[in-house]
């Protein structure tokens, strides 16, 4: 990850900028549309990657969150990295922070639903857990467009 990038806990004050970062990925249907209120809720267990200059935050370049469903299961959500920083390790660092948060909360498993399978496999995810069932989905309504 570039030395000018640092990762910190997201805050509700970051929500508007996170929402703007996510917008291009929502438009490409790579991320689900979220309201600002939903993004604010995700900051509870979310992390942002920030470009720093002279020890000042100058640009939010990444976001990801973990949503805790139960002591057994959490989901990695909303991974978005500014296009200029893709491939630099920012996304991997955000995923690592989210997984560590779930681990610190004693969650047993973290799942991720994504079109970036190779990236997630490089972060330690796989299509199914050993000796476990696979998740299948039935879409009941169209995905919302922003």
Structure overview:
By secondary structure, this protein is an alpha+beta fold. The chain has helices spanning 15-27, 36-42, 90-104, 117-122, and strands at residues 5-9, 46-53, 56-68, 73-81, 109-112. The N and C termini lie far apart (31 Å). The relative contact order is 0.18.
Q: What's the alpha carbon Rg, rounded to whole Å?
A: 15 Å
The major β-sheet equals: 5 strands, mixed
Mean pLDDT: 89
Number of strands: 5
Report the total helices: 4
* Beta-strand content bin: 25-35%
**Any low-confidence stretches, pLDDT <50, length ≥5?**
none
Secondary-structure element series? EHHEEEHEH
Indicate the structural class: alpha+beta
Q: Considering DSSP H and I runs of 4 or more, what fraction of the residues is helical?
A: 25-40%
What would you call the shape?
A: globular
Distance between the termini: 31 Å
- Strand line-up across the major sheet: 1-2-3-4-5
What are the salient characteristics of this protein?
single chain; 146 residues; 4 helices; alpha+beta; 5 strands; 27% strand; 28% helix
Write a concise synopsis of the structure shown.
The protein has helices at 15-27, 36-42, 90-104, 117-122; strands spanning 5-9, 46-53, 56-68, 73-81, 109-112.
Indicate the topology.
Elements lengths: L4 E5 L5 H13 L8 H7 L3 E8 L2 E13 L4 E9 L8 H15 L4 E4 L4 H6 L24
Parallel strand pairs: 4-5
Antiparallel strand pairs: 1-2, 2-3, 3-4
Helix pairs in contact: 1-2
């Amino acid at each position: 990850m570039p030395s000018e990038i640092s990762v910190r806990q997201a805050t509700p004050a970051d929500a508007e900028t996170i929402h703007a970062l996510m917008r291009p990925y929502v438009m490409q249907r790579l991320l689900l549309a979220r309201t600002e209120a939903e993004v604010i809720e995700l900051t509870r267990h979310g992390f942002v990657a920030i470009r720093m200059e002279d020890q000042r935050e100058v640009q939010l370049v990444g976001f990801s969150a973990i949503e805790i469903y139960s002591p057994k299961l959490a989901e990695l959500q909303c991974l978005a990295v500014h296009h200029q920083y893709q491939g630099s390790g920012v996304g991997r660092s955000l995923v690592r922070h989210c997984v560590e948060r779930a681990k610190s909360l004693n969650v047993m498993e973290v799942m991720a639903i994504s079109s970036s399978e190779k990236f997630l496999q490089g972060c330690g995810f796989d299509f199914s857990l050993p000796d476990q069932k696979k998740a299948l989905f039935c879409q009941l309504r169209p995905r919302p467009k922003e």
